[in-house]
Amino acid sequence: MPNVVSLFPARRRQRAGPPGRTLRAMRKRLEAQGGSAADWHRLGELLLVEHRFEAALDAMGKAVDLAPGNTRFVSGLALALSWNRRYEDAIRTRQSLQHLGGRDIAAQADDLKYAHDFAGAIALVDAAEAAGRADAAAKVIRGIARLYLGDHRAGFADMENRFDAGLTKLPDTLPRTRWDGTPAPGLRLLVCPDQGLGDDIMMIRFLPALADAGVAATFLARAPLEALLRASPLGAAVQSRVSDLSAFDAWCPVGSLPHLLGCDPAPPPPTPLSVPDTSMRFGQATTAPYADAFRIGVCWTGNPQYPRNAMRSATPRLFEPLARRDGVALFSLCFGDDVAALAETGMDGAIVDACATADFADTAGVIAHMDLVITTDTALAHLAASLGAPTWNLLPTEGFWQYGATGEATPWYPSMRLFRQPRRGDWDGVMARVGEALTERLQARSGTTNRSS
Fold it and tell me: Domains in the chain, start-ordered, CATH in brackets?
């Protein structure tokens, strides 16, 4: 559950009418009538849902200017500041409130976490819990802060509140009994996903421990992962759907396995994934024309349904300095609508589109023929590192808990190297360090050294 969803607005809602109709109606009303504080606040809410964060901040600010004592409007302003990655300003804005409601406590803890004040986030929720005012979402944030600090036992225990907080997506039908972690040889256990695809890849490392305990586990794999996981030694069967629930005695979310099985003092190694033969051939055919090049798989964005995807994403232009290197070939590991960005940014001539489908098995086949993978922090990073590929993970300052807040290594993936933004939003700083590291790697590969270094 690294990436437990963002707690507060901003999933784009499906609307019956044309996109933006509600926003246009609100703007027309404001132009005609001048607008009350409540009108500006409502506009800000609509803009947040549309991910128009700067405009939302302006609207929320107008609401507070018109009604500075209104707690709801001040909370809205703090929320807009947070979505603009101005976490310290959001924290100070909420501190002006005399009383933090449950939603504000969770939001304040979230911003303290994003500002790397993990102890402050934990203390805030501890105090709220002692007063009976900490909701499930706040406890999830406390769990993430604890995980950042390496407290797996308490952190994963707090993360179990994600169900009550409505932060998970479980299958519609499940066996009646949820497994409590009690060892039971012969138990027929259905393990299901409850977060993102990257979380699935990260957490399946706990499945072999079930087999060691004599539990007959079946993992319910989503379509993009099914072929890859069926070919891999998980210590569990793999199914894409379940038609007979009587075949199982109990169920368990895959993200709960570290809580139920333990994760101390360090996580188990990632499950080594096996690439199906057909996917290996796909990767070979895709990369064959570039056999003499140093091949780098690249990815610049993740699931757009993740509300803070923009925070961890860039554009193909991020990799332009690498594309200019002699002897280097870049391969896009993005798929679907994200591939259109190659042509939109003029990078389609510099980066080979290597992933025709959303099937992670084929993506794994391409990765198997790469010398290096460089990616922003998406499911692709988990996939590449679980395959044992050298993986350079480009992190925003708000990187997820399994990477900690400092350093270049993570115990969750031995083959992964972390490149962190030196300042919030500074991808240029990240790529400057990547460029230096790539020079070192290419020199080592060719047996040359840089006499001036």
Answer: 21-162 (1.25.40.10), 188-261 (3.40.50), 277-446 (3.40.50.2000)
Does the pLDDT at position 453 exceed 90? no
Q: Compute the distance between CA of residue 341 and CA of residue 170 in angstroms, rounded to an integer.
A: 32
Contacts with 25 (C-beta within 8 Å, 6 or more apart), sequence order:
none
Using the predicted structure, report yes or no on whether residue 29 has a pLDDT greater than 90.
no
- Structure confidence by residue, pLDDT tens digits, 94-136: 999 988 988 999 999 999 999 999 999 999 999 999 999 999 9
Owner of token pair 């990187």: 399
Token reading at 117: 């004040």
How long a stretch of residues is the chain? 453
d(CA 293, CA 326): 9
| In contact, 142 and 157? CB cutoff 8 Å | no
- Whole-number Å distance between alpha carbons of 130 and 439: 53
**Residue carrying the six token digits 């600090």:** 149
Q: How, if at all, do strands 294-299 and 188-192 pair?
A: unpaired
Cβ-contact 63, 40 below 8 angstroms? yes
Count of helices and strands (H, E) across the chain? 20, 10
Beta bridge partners of 294: 328
* Cβ proximity of 323 and 351 under 8 Å: yes
C-alpha of 369 from chain center: 25
- Interval 195-222 mean pLDDT: 96
Q: State which amino acid sits at residue 30.
A: L
Distance CA 220, CA 241 (A): 7
DSSP structure class, residue 227: H
Question: SS3 of 400, please?
Answer: coil
Q: Which residue, among 66, 90, 92, has the nearest Cα to 77 in the 3D structure?
A: 90
Query: Considering Cα of 274, then 191, then 385, then 260, what sign does the dihedral take?
Result: negative
* C-alpha 322: how far from chain center: 25
Residue 203 CA to residue 184 CA, distance in Å, equals 21
DSSP per-residue codes, 140-187: HHHHHHHHHTT-HHHHHHHHGGGTTTT-----S---SPBP-S---TT-
Report d(CA 443, CA 14) in Å as an integer: 51
Mean pLDDT of 393-398: 97
In terms of Cβ atoms closer than 10 Å to its own Cβ (0-12, 13-18, 19+), residue 53 is buried
Q: Which of 275, 450, 441 is nearest to 374 (CA)?
A: 441
